[in-house]
Amino acid sequence: xxxxxxxxxxxxxxxxxxxxxxxxxxxxxxxxxxxxxxxxxxxxxxxxxxxxxxxxxxxxxxxxxxxxxxxxxxxxxxxxxxxxxxxxxxxxxxxxxxxxxxxxxxxxxxxxxxxxxxxxxxxxxxxxxxxxxxxxxxxxxxxxxxxxxxxxxxxxxxxxxxxxxxxxxxxxxxxxxxxxxxxxxxxxxxxxxxxxxxxxxxxxxxxxxxxxxxxxxxxxxxxxxxxxxxxxxxxxxxxxxxxxxxxx
Length: 248
Hints:
Blueprint: E1 4-7, H1 13-24, E2 29-33, H2 40-43, E3 48-51, H3 60-64, E4 67-73, H4 80-93, E5 98-102, H5 114-127, E6 133-138, H6 144-147, H7 150-156, E7 158-161, E8 167-168, H8 173-185, E9 192-196, E10 202-203, H9 204-215, E11 220-223, H10 234-238
Parallel strand pairs: 1-2, 1-4, 2-3, 4-5, 5-6, 6-9, 7-11
Antiparallel strand pairs: 8-10
Helix pairs in contact: 1-8, 4-5
């Protein structure tokens, strides 16, 4: 018996899909959201919800109460490692047996990249608590093209990134969630880390060609320099790209 699985960040792109797939598999899942109103969509589906606000540790114990496993979604930043450690310790204290972290591709080999380095620090913080852990390290989500650049593509037919002609092994969030479900519902994954990536690496020029064929109109990718990619630069503002969309 797997027991209750709590999914943090349940209203986000990955968390929502993990909740959906766990529920479809008949698992007992608890959707954790940082504000109660975010849980309404799950309540309508008959899924248990709980408020878990990373900025309010007083919400953690009740959220973890009775949970057997946790799927943890967090975001790179200066306090990420501390949050990860404290959250894992709270989960362990509540009796959680397995802590599965959504990490980032390259966390184990690319410390020169801030997001990868921050996620590795988060991983190490979780490991230091002694809780059984698994790290999932997905590559760039296909859904980023919609969530971050979709509006610019619809409005102008152009999207901008500081990626040059580098290639990326894009992965669908639904596949990331499927890997999470396997990790959370079967044995043998404690203490392991898995890098998740697509079957083919594509440049953004190739992505633009694929989008063009699918849309029936020309979609163009414009490579920015690192300087141009800064969110305060006029070139980025003109492209309709927000600071949010500048994230990898």
